[in-house]
Design goal:
6 strands, Rossmann fold, 208 residues, binds magnesium ion, alpha/beta, binds adenosine-5'-triphosphate, globular, 8 helices
């Protein structure tokens, strides 16, 4: 059995934009897994995907994460996946972190939709070997369905997965982009300063 001195959470995502689902998930993981801190790690976009119509740039996504987590002392921004070269892979990020900090257990926090797709990710076995996955319900999946997917993934990759106990939050960035685009209010779905930032910069105004 491994012995770790530290336990750190990682919330990866495109955060386009970051919303309260991401924040509540990070806080639940912090509390339930006894984490030291949670790293919010926006994934990079390759240069040819920068400034896509109806999407935020890397800089804007990063800024929104920064604003959203600023009031929480145990949330931290990590720019590890923000490379100019573009795509980064979770397994590489985790292996880099593990080799730099061998006494730290990394808990990679995901929603159920990500767990269902997990086997299609690049090098899922290496991800399991480098971290502990922690998963929460999403899209109203039942606990039974989630447990089944957890069990299957555990068996397939010889790993142990943590289940987080959170309420289902029916929020996605995609839905919020659509609402902004159609002039509908996203107040309370994102931190107020994030909402202001989106409106002031006209993000998501243009046609998708
Ligand atoms: P998009 O609609 O653009 O896909 P998203 O809301 O799914 O955005 P992502 O940045 O893709 O957000 O998600 C990052 C991680 O957060 C994923 O593991 C995802 O499952 C999880 N997540 C996002 N929203 C929720 C939510 N409402 N409840 C639980 N998990 C969530
Ligand atoms: Mg998503």
């Amino acid at each position: 059995m491994d012995f770790y001195k530290h336990r750190i959470g990682i919330m990866g995502g495109t955060f386009d934009p970051i919303h309260i689902g991401h924040l509540i998930l990070g806080e639940a993981a912090y509390e339930q897994l006894g984490l030291e801190k949670v790293l919010y790690m926006p994934s990079g976009n390759p240069p040819h995907k920068q400034h896509r119509e109806g999407r935020a740039s890397d800089l804007q996504r990063t800024e929104m994460v920064k604003i959203a987590i600023s009031g929480n002392p145990h949330f931290e921004l990590s720019l590890m996946e923000m490379h100019e070269e573009g795509y980064t892979y979770t397994y590489r990020t985790l292996e880099t972190l593990r080799s730099k900090n061998p006494d730290t257990e990394y808990c990679f926090i995901i929603g159920a939709d990500s767990l269902f797709q997990f086997h299609t990710w690049m090098q899922p076995q290496r991800i399991c070997d480098a971290c502990t996955l922690a998963v929460a319900v999403r899209d109203n999946v039942s606990m039974a369905t989630l447990r089944k997917a957890v069990q299957e993934t555990e068996d397939r990759f010889h790993t142990t997965i943590e289940i987080l106990h959170t309420t289902n939050l029916d929020i996605s960035s995609n839905m919020l982009r659509d609402w902004v685009h159609h002039g509908r209010s996203i107040r309370y779905y994102v931190p107020e300063q994030v909402r202001e930032y989106i409106l002031q910069n006209g993000i998501y105004d243009s046609q998708k």
